[in-house]
């Protein structure tokens, strides 16, 4: 009998909740405890269902409905519309969103799994979830996504609010430098857009 840990290893680790569970580990536990169906994970698609069936020793019916091929997504913030409310920060399982309170926020694409959890909480609807093209940079591996999610949970367990300042404090020197560059670029894009909007009005 597979353990929940072994089942969790097979899941994509986006923590997107599309399976109806709180995260990938809860779904893994649900497969064991509740006999949850093996086809509840859209980001995993058919290949994940086949792997789950193999580890659970379940035969797949030959006439089953195949799950669609999963797509890769990423989130994009329309920085010129961001009001800096920081509501999206706590939602992100991989802490891929950066930005200080009342300032522009942006997304570090290499850490974004495209889970989509940030978009619904944005009060000004400035986060868009897009499909990755074949030429997009490669997605965060499931192992790296899981490690980032575990660090995110540890911080929440210590009752730290998931603010950018607290996340930033844990970065090493080169990561801090990289984050500064990314946020500066976001501020520059926002300022440039505001300037061109002003020029259009005057
Ligand atoms: S990636 Fe799959 S298992 Fe994990 S939370 Fe999303 S739907 Fe559930
Ligand atoms: S930025 Fe949004 S879509 Fe990307 S991982 Fe974070 S919550 Fe998910
Ligand atoms: S929820 Fe929307 S407006 Fe608020 S910080 Fe995030 S992107 Fe900006």
Q: Write down the domain tally.
A: 2
Structural class: mainly alpha
CATH topology of the largest domain: Alpha-Beta Plaits
Radius of gyration: 19 Å
**Intertermini distance:** 70 Å
**Unreliable runs:** none
Mean pLDDT: 89
**H/E element sequence:** HHHEHEEEHHH
- Give the CATH class of the largest domain: Alpha Beta
| Main β sheet profile | 2 strands, antiparallel
Strand order, largest beta sheet:
1-4
Task: Work out the strand percent.
Answer: 5-15%
Morphology call? elongated
> What is the name of the CATH architecture of the largest domain?
2-Layer Sandwich
List bound small molecules.
iron/sulfur cluster
Number of helical regions: 7
Instruction: Classify the helix fraction into a percent range.
Output: 40-55%
- Count the E strands: 4
Could you please describe the fold and organization of this structure?
The structure is a single chain. This protein is mainly α. The chain has two domains: 4-56, Orthogonal Bundle (3-methyladenine DNA Glycosylase II, Chain A, domain 3); 73-201, Alpha-Beta Plaits (2-Layer Sandwich), CATH 3.30.70. The protein has seven helices and four strands; from the N terminus they run αααβαβββααα. The chain has helices at 4-9, 24-33, 45-56, 87-91, 142-157, 164-169, 173-201; strands at residues 73-77, 97-98, 106-107, 127-131. The strands form two sheets. A two-stranded antiparallel sheet has the order 1-4. A two-stranded antiparallel ribbon has the order 2-3. β2 (97-98) and β3 (106-107) form a beta hairpin. The longest helix is centred in the last third of the chain and has 29 residues, at 173-201. The structure holds iron/sulfur cluster (3 copies). One iron/sulfur cluster binds next to α4.
């Amino acid at each position: 009998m597979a353990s929940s840990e072994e089942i969790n290893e097979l899941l994509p680790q986006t923590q997107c909740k599309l399976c109806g569970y709180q995260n990938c580990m809860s779904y893994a536990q649900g497969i064991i405890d509740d006999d949850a169906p093996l086809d509840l994970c859209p980001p995993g698609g058919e290949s994940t269902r086949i792997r789950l069936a193999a580890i659970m020793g379940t035969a797949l019916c030959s006439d089953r409905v195949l799950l669609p091929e999963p797509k890769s997504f990423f989130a994009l913030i329309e920085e010129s519309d961001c009001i800096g409310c920081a509501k999206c920060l706590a939602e992100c399982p991989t802490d891929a969103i950066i930005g200080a309170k009342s300032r522009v926020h942006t997304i570090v694409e290499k850490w974004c799994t495209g889970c989509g959890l940030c978009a619904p909480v944005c009060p000004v609807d400035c986060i868009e979830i897009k499909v990755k093209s074949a030429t997009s940079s490669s997605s965060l591996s499931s192992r790296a996504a899981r490690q980032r999610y575990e660090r995110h949970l540890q911080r929440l367990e210590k009752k730290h609010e998931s603010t950018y300042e607290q996340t930033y404090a844990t970065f090493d020197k080169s990561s801090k430098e990289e984050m500064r560059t990314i946020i500066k670029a976001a501020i520059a894009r926002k300022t440039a857009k505001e300037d061109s909007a002003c020029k259009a009005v005057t």
